[in-house]
Queue: 2 jobs
Job 1
Amino acid sequence: MNILKDVLSELFSMFVADARLTASILAIVVVVALLIKWTSMPQLAGGLLLLLGCIAVLLSSIYREANRRRSPPEANE
Amino acid sequence: MIEWSTATPAISAAFLASVVEVVEAFTIVLVVATLRGWKPAVLGTGAALAALASVVVVMGPLLDQVPLNILQLTIGVLLLLFGIGWLRKASLRAGGVIPLHDEGAIFAKKTAELRDEVQRQRTSQDWIAGIAAFKAVLLEGLEVIFIVIAVGSGRGLLWPASLGALAACVVVLMIGAIAHRPLARVPENTLKFGVGVMLSAFGVFWTGEGLGIEWPGHDLALFVLAVLFLIAGLMSAQMLRQPLARNAQ
């Protein structure tokens, strides 16, 4: 059972290394999907929004983590 | 007929990602072999490879049943989560925020952990060592399978991507067999950075295709997406290093 638990936990951590990063990426995909399906947004604009949104989420996640790790311990509590 | 504009990134992503995973698994197998001999290491590894083969045998036919756009969207989103996670970690390492992956240190730590575990347990010591090898190969192998499926299934490139992963296994095991110590000189973070860039590009590409987006230049758009993720990753690592350089002055 321990092995199964470890495998499931590893699989989970493969895709959810950082909960906020995961939630943000999923939100971008949902927003782009809705915009393409329910508005007259050109598909290519949707693709561009998806790309730029993912890059923005990546950068903000990197800076947030860097700030968290570099700030004094009491600031993280 | 294979289109090399798609096959090349798929094969190289599968190869490079598999190098990272196989090196990590090799370190644990080597810990087991060093502490308890090659028998439990080989038995644990063999059992894990059999388990992984059965996953492939079960999963393979199921993939053919999924409509292409749903497969692309699902794989694309999973690739985004996985690839951007890798790129984030590699950028933080390159920027000096978190320490670089050190296979030598991991070997020493895992050796100490397994030695403690073996001494604590009353069950067969070889059994515990074999289970450690089994878990390591199974966990890293599952990541390899996911990456192969992710980069290969969208355009019917499962076989070329599998060959890329297999080549990585052969290369790492050959070097490992000759070196007979942890492969600490493999530039793990550079590989992880490169693979993170490629998987993130594949993720945007497949997610877009799954949503019905037709990328200009079709498969060649992958290269543009990869370049943009590469620039973002390099820029963030560079900007993270600047405060460190200022503090050092």
Job 2
Amino acid sequence: MLGALLIVFREVIEAGLIVGIVLAATRGVPGRGLWVSAGVAAGVFGACVLAVFAGGLSSLFHGSGQELFNAAILLLAVGMLTWHNVWMARHGREMSRELKAVGAEVVKGSRSLLAMAVVVGVAVLREGSEVVLFLYGIAAQGGATTMGMLAGGALGVVGGAAVSALMYLGLLAIPAHRLFAATTGLITLLAAGLAAQSAAFLQQADVIDVLTTPLWDTSRILKEGSTVGRLLKTIVGYTDRPDGLQLIAWLAVVAMMITLMRLVNPKRPAAMVGSLAVPQAAE
Amino acid sequence: MIRTFALLVVFAALCACSKGGTASGSPPIPLLLKEHRFTPAEITVKANQAFALEVTNADGVADEFDSDSLKREKVIAGGQKGVVRVGPLAPGRYPFMGEYHAKTAQGAVIVQP
């Protein structure tokens, strides 16, 4: 039962951490709870569908269907996160000025919220499909330990959600005038990590064959598969044996984010934080 | 709308690029997962040669072939086969596992110089 609990717990916090970052980044934007919830629901639904069709997906594209699908949705999430950061860099100042016009504020906020809902959906889809397959496997096998393991799985979901909520509250503890810069940074690192993961899947699928040699090995210091390692993997894209392509993908996304944000708003993002903090409704 | 279309184009391009078969051209190495155990539990290959593992999941339920050191993770549905291509490796020991049954589903790839 403990084994099932741990497996499910780790998958849930990987998705929950992303949900928490998204919620912190959209704090104050009206209706974001609905959009994020819709993203989670879509992700759960998608996870069930994906679990059902896992076999069929795998056999597509010379057996690389799963890897290509993972690479594609991870890149989609990178795109959405980039769009959010760029959009906030451009419109953050306008949003605070025009918050008097409620209609305009809802429209302006909701486009960014759609992008965030997609990010949340992708994260829940990725981790959720593994949870669904794992729990279904337990249920299908039957036997004396089934109820115990399913209970462990359920506890893992609850525990994972609870820890994710704690991490979100931790983010909220950041003072309002620093929250924007902090979440912009978190989103940048999150996107860079997802890009590095996508690069690994592309190599796994043999789409890209170059730069596959690991550059360094920190598995003695922190194993990527450990709970802390996996959390770090989600937050900053930590991997204990990164290869050249992953490093390039990581750096390229960070560089791209900074460049695009500077292009749409030459003022440093931190300078706009004050304008956002003023009309923030208390959460 | 444009974003979705762009993504589909990228996805299609990626699929068009994906190569069939193993990178090295040699036949895949069979790996059986039955009763949540791998057979053979240890696979020996030569260094700096790409190869492929053909994992047959003879159990009724899905499992995930997962190896941090090989940087491969792949879900294999019950009763199905999955091919895991692995790039040229430096000598060493690379453990892998069936993540959903990690207590018993353990194995390693031993790479010899």
